[in-house]
Specification:
Blueprint (H helix, E strand, L loop, with lengths): L1 E2 L7 H9 L3 E5 L5 E5 L3 E5 L8 H9 L3 E4 L3 H9 L12 H12 L3 E8 L2 E11 L2 E9 L4 H16 L3 E5 L3 H6 L2 E4 H12 L7
Parallel strand pairs: 8-9
Antiparallel strand pairs: 1-3, 2-3, 4-9, 4-10, 5-6, 6-7, 7-8
């Protein structure tokens, strides 16, 4: 299923898609057309077994970074959409950014920011529905900045009683952080269970 670049993403359709196991991505090779994705295998994090790396724990103890929530959502999503060193393309189109900013204004999309000496140097954003958090993307301008933000997110989700942390599609970075893959049927079982619980993110 696709939306052409001339169609806007309706917020109600976007929320319904997440509840049904879909998420949007744009294709930079096809005039940024937006596609609804539902992978056969889903990358997720086990909130109970996640453990931060030694480096993250060391930097956390040293307080080299400060972390905030929902302070600079638009800056974070812009950072995530910016070209990377080894990849100049992005799946985060202007249309997708606009939709998630609307979700943020509705209190459904959230950002976690990493700061170093008063400067935004990394972070991530995602959507919270029920007891599920759907991680969308992260960026880092300084080593470990996004990992520190991610670690704080996991701790926050645990404290709030979240049941599912969805990372969508596995890649080497997610695997390094501790993500695992599960079959679509198992993902939908966990998702439906999590959506039955009501949690306020902040």
């Amino acid at each position: 299923m696709e939306l052409t670049s001339r169609q806007m993403i309706r917020i109600d359709e976007l929320i319904r898609a997440y509840r049904q196991g879909f998420f949007p991505m744009s294709d930079p090779h096809e005039d940024e057309k937006v596609y609804w994705c539902q992978p056969y295998r889903r990358a997720v994090f086990d909130l109970d077994t996640y453990r931060a790396s030694r480096d993250v724990l060391r930097l956390t103890r040293k307080n080299e970074f400060s972390v905030t929530f929902d302070r600079e959502f638009e800056a974070v999503i812009n950072g995530c959409a910016a070209p990377r060193k080894n990849d100049h393309e992005t799946w985060i189109s202007g249309e997708i950014m606009e939709a998630y900013i609307k979700l943020h204004n509705l209190g459904l999309a959230h950002s976690i920011e990493s700061w170093y000496q008063g400067e935004l140097v990394g972070g991530l954003y995602g959507i919270a529905l029920g007891a599920a958090f759907f991680g969308e993307s992260m960026f880092s301008l300084r080593s470990y900045a996004s990992r520190i933000a991610f670690d704080r997110l996991v701790l926050h989700l645990r404290e709030r009683g979240y049941l599912l942390l969805d990372a969508q599609i596995m890649n080497p970075h997610l695997e390094m952080l501790g993500a695992v893959e599960i079959e679509h049927e198992e993902y939908m079982r966990q998702l439906n269970h999590a959506l039955q619980k009501k949690i306020v993110f902040l």
